[in-house]
């Protein structure tokens, strides 16, 4: 397996946040994010868990009816992060 540099991993994490930010009202499953990144599911999940520790993404474990997902997780950007991005964009425009 190829060893990725820290810089490349940072770019991939930025891409994940960008994918989720583009669709803030639609949480995505790990495999949907992996498809967008063109990476495997396990590696994408590892990156998502690191982003969760940093507070940039949050997992959703239940569907709209309140039933828990058994083997899958949806991901979204927390509201406080969305507000921070919007405030930053308003300041730069």
Unreliable stretches, pLDDT < 50, 5 or more residues? none
Order of helices and strands: HEHHEEH
Integer tally of domains: 1
User: Helix amount, in percent?
Assistant: 55-70%
How can the largest sheet be summarized? 3 strands, antiparallel
The percentage of residues in β strands lies in 5-15%
How many DSSP-defined strands? Answer: 3
| Average pLDDT over all residues | 88
Radius of gyration equals: 14 Å
Determine the CATH topology. Answer: Arc Repressor Mutant, subunit A
The CATH first-level class comes to Mainly Alpha
Please name the fourth-level CATH homologous superfamily: Winged helix-like DNA-binding domain superfamily/Winged helix DNA-binding domain
* SSE class: mainly alpha
Which second-level CATH architecture applies? Orthogonal Bundle
Shape: flat
Provide the spatial order of strands within the biggest beta sheet: 1-3-2
Helical segment tally? 4
User: Separation of termini?
Assistant: 43 Å
Would you mind describing this structure in some detail?
With 93 residues, the protein is mostly helical. Helix content is 57%, strand content 9%. The protein has one domain: Orthogonal Bundle (Arc Repressor Mutant, subunit A), CATH 1.10.10.10. It has 4 helices and 3 strands, in the order H-E-H-H-E-E-H. A 3-stranded antiparallel sheet has the order 1-3-2. Helix 2 crosses helix 3. The termini are far apart.
């Amino acid at each position: 397996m190829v060893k990725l540099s820290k810089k490349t991993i940072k770019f991939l994490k930025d891409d994940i946040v960008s994918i989720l930010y583009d669709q803030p009202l639609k949480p995505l499953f790990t495999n949907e994010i992996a498809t967008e990144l063109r990476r495997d599911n396990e590696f994408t999940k590892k990156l998502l868990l690191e982003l969760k520790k940093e507070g940039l993404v949050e997992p959703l474990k239940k569907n709209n009816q309140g039933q828990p997902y058994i083997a899958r997780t949806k991901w979204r950007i927390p509201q406080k992060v969305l507000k921070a991005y919007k405030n930053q964009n308003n300041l730069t425009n």
